Amino acid sequence: YTFEAIYIDANGLEIPFRAEVQFTQHLNAGAMIAAVAYAPDGIVFKNDEVATLKAHCDLWRGATIDTTNVTYAWGIKDSAVFANTTLTAEAKTGATTVTVASVTNMEAGGKISIGSVQYTISAVSASTKVVTLTSALTGTSASGSPVSCPYYNAMLGAGWACLTSANPRGVTAGWTTNEITITADAVLNFETFKCAIKDTDTSAGNSSANKVVCDIISFTDMSDPITVDLVSQKGFTIKNNGNDVDAKAVLYRNGEELDANGTAYTYTWKLWNSAGTSVIKTYTGKSITVSKADVTGKGVLMCEVSK
User: Fold this and answer.
1) Are 7 and 134 in a shared domain?
2) What is the pLDDT of residue 30?
3) Residues 6+ apart with CB under 8 A from 207
4) What pLDDT does residue 24 have?
5) Of 148, 174, 200, which residue sits at a domain end?
6) In this structure, are residues 151 and 161 in contact, taking their beta carbons and an 8 Å threshold?
7) DSSP strand pairing (44-45 vs 212-221)
8) Which domain CATH number covers 42?
9) Domain end marker among 102, 126, 148
10) What would the pLDDT profile of 13-59 be if each residue is shown by its tens digit?
11) Are the beta carbons of 16 and 5 closer than 8 angstroms?
């Protein structure tokens, strides 16, 4: 089950969030296996107080944790991840559209693999099952050829991007173990992770052999917003073409200054013309100098801060 809502703060900013809960029905408690996920260090990121958090998941067999003959897979919620499908018509070199057997979960901007080549989806037609790509096919594929999402994992299912070293999504370790390490970069407001565990014990009498059990766990980022103030010791006025303008970006969060030495964030500046229609010059760094030669009449200075 999924609960979705939108929080509107005092400034009218809308912040979507959601929570998911999974129920398991145990028909035979004696032979039951279940995946149980938890966060040993908590589920909340706030103002860089912790660099990472962990998600842990175990396979319980009855009242005992079983770590032998099991396979783990971790995923992050991604609605653009679709299950494997096939082409229903030949796709020729140079074409920008393909027809597939199913377009379920396919979305514009999602990734699709045809043959050994990965493409980006531009548009999807649910009625005709035609998928438009952002670039032309580099090879010809026959009808019936496999079509897949590079992030799909059968244990996790559609709607979940499998986390790997090649697709970490802010998770730095543990992709195939019972515990992953999650950085704050992985959580934008709210994020849900899924752990799938497969029982690979095929010995006689094991009724759960090759079965997959799953659990989900969600993390939230409750960091206060960061504000950017642009300051100048000389002011932002060039008088009689006699001075340059020094500018500095000062970051504040919860009343405290951040990144005083300018090493934790990336600062990108743009000097626009007076009409705001074109960029005259760009700068980088926490502190910059705008030359009087770059300003004719008026200019608009903007700073973008990223991490």
Assistant:
1) no
2) 46
3) 28, 31
4) 62
5) 148
6) yes
7) parallel
8) 2.60.40.10
9) 148
10) 787 777 777 776 555 444 589 999 999 999 999 888 899 999 999 99
11) yes
Residue environment code for 206-222, b if the CB has 16+ CB neighbours within 10 A, otherwise e: bebeeebbbbbbbbebe
C-alpha 214/C-alpha 70 separation (Å) is 13
| pLDDT value of residue 238 | 84
Six token digits for residue 273: 């013309």
Q: Which residues of the chain have pLDDT under 50?
A: 28-30
Closest CA to 181 of 295, 40, 61, 301: 40
pTM of the model: 0.71
Give the dihedral of Cα atoms 177, 183, 185, 186; nearest 10 deg: 30
Closest C-alpha to 147, from 104, 93, 110, 100 = 100
Q: Rounded distance, CA 178 to CA 301, Å?
A: 49
Residue 185 backbone dihedrals phi, psi, to 5 degrees = -65, -20
What are the structure tokens assigned to 261, written together?
A: 């030495």
The amino acid occupying position 238 is I
Q: What is the DSSP letter of 179?
A: E
Q: Are 17 and 121 in the same domain?
A: no
Separation of alpha carbons 92 and 16, rounded Å: 42
Distance CA 260, CA 301 (A): 21
Question: Which residue type, as a one-letter code, is found at position 220?
Answer: T
Task: Give the span between the Cα atoms of 24 and 130, in whole angstroms.
Answer: 37
The three-class DSSP label of residue 219 is strand
Domain that holds residue 142: 85-148
| Residues in CB range of 25: below 8 A, 6 or more apart | none
Q: For residue 229, report the phi and psi dihedrals to the nearest 5 degrees.
A: -110, 130
